[in-house]
Design brief:
This protein has seven helices and 14 strands. 22% of the residues lie in helices and 30% in strands.
Length: 323
Amino acid sequence: MEKDLPIDMLVSGEGEGIRLDAFVAGAIGVGRGPAARAVEQGRIRVDGLARKPSFRLKQGMRVQGACPAPRQAGPVEPVGIPLEVLYEDEWIVVVNKPAGMSVHPGAGASGPTLAGALIARYPEMALVGDPERPGIVHRLDKLTTGVMVAARNAHAHAVLSRAFKAHEHTRIYLALCWGSPGKDSGTIETFMQRNPKDRTRMTSRAKEGRRAVTHWEVLKRWRDFALLRLKLETGRTHQIRVHLAESGHPVAGDPVYGPRRRARTIPDPRVRSALEALSRQMLHASLLGIRHPATGEYLEFTSEPPEDMRAFMSALDAAQEGS
């Protein structure tokens, strides 16, 4: 049976002038084609009225209805690739995810996935949870590294899924960001939703959406960059990347939310070269704390920053020492 994705949103100032089909696509994460078909079929209305997909929205209008969810791919195929396992027992497995590995198949995902690697190592996990994301209870962006936990049986999956939904876990990240925050610590609290102008991006410049809270502190400062420790109170898509970018301190190397051509402004050639060599955002999930799904014991797992982050920090140290 086809599943519907509901929409019930007020158009904010950022949505002013956006086509109705583009707004719907960005709001609920579907393609422009399916969104346009839902509008043409009268399944999505503006202030209660049927409109054309090309209808231009105005601030304050209400968009309501539903759009069919995109069809899912087939079951995950096992892929025999090595994993850095930090902990394993009959209930859970904790891994250090590398950059470039998607957590599970999906829109925009290509190459081997963590889910595929897990079921190759633990075949029983293929029957745990959603067949499209077996064993998966949370995720990291493809280019983000660090600690992740997965469930090896149905009970562990149910317990961990509830805990992550209730934000009962501890998630600490390290990020190298542009600039130097004016304070030593702080909290960013916003609403988050998909950017109505580009459905592949998120935005925190919204008056409604899902609550997003990020606590941060500065661990080290350099001339043009800073190392931050961030604790997530919530776990929204791209939360840290969006919060830092829209507060004026985007994550170094971020291909989506980072500044373009800004590397040219860096005076030190070592830092400039190191920055230009980055192929991903300098964001690392350094600590994950959970309650064990069987014993209830609180466990923490940690991971050191990967080589590319260490190399970039070394370039920053060398430039600072030589100045």
